[in-house]
Amino acid sequence: MSITPEALEAEFSLSTAATRLDFLSRRDNGDTTLNTVRDDDDEDSWASLKATDTQLDVHESLELLALGEVVARKAHDSRLVGIRAALRGGAGWEEIARALGVTPEEAWDAFRDAVAQQLDSDAAAAARELAGSRPGR
Predict the structure, then answer these.
(1) What pLDDT score does 136 carry?
(2) Distance CA 98, CA 118 (A)
(3) What is the 3-class SS of the chain, one letter each residue?
(4) Which long-range contacts (CB under 8 A, 24 or more apart) does 128-131 make?
(5) Contact 32, 26 (CB under 8 A)
(6) Using N-to-C axis directions, what is the helix angle for 121-131 and 58-88, rounded to 10°?
């Protein structure tokens, strides 16, 4: 299996990708020391297993990177759904912009771009009408 965002995106839903990403990121201790050998006095004790640090292997590390991209892409794609729902519910561009951490103009522009990229012509026309005019005009 090729470890690319495109390959994993087809395989994982957003929630599954996020869960796997969380699992892998929690498993790695972040240690940057290479080729370290542990010398435990009591190798047979359960405490030594608990104290063992975990590092991801190369495959898992690449999977972690690709899953991060998958989650980012899928979350970004949900922006259109969220903005449309907020507009239908009566939210204004100031509120939507605050929720996105951007200016109202940037939120409106991002919405228009997503509409153009993700919706067919009929749905895009309805979404543009729902959006109204660009804030600040």
Answers:
(1) 85
(2) 23
(3) CCCCHHHHHHHCCHHHHHHHHHHHHHHCCCCCCCCCCCCCCCCCCHHHHHCCCCCCCHHHHHHHHHHHHHHHHHHHHHHHHHHHHHHHCCCCHHHHHHHHCCCHHHHHHHHHHHHHHHCCHHHHHHHHHHHCCCCCC
(4) 130/84, 130/87, 130/88, 131/87
(5) no
(6) 60
pLDDT along the chain (137 residues), means of 10: 87 92 86 55 55 77 94 89 95 96 96 94 95 89
> Which tokens is 18 given?
């996020």
Q: Name 12's Cβ contacts closer than 8 Å, sequence gap at least 6.
A: 20, 67, 70
Tokens matching residue 102: 């951007």
Q: What's the token pair of residue 9? A: 């995106």
Q: Tokens standing for 79?
A: 């922006």
Does the reported pTM lie above 0.85?
Answer: no
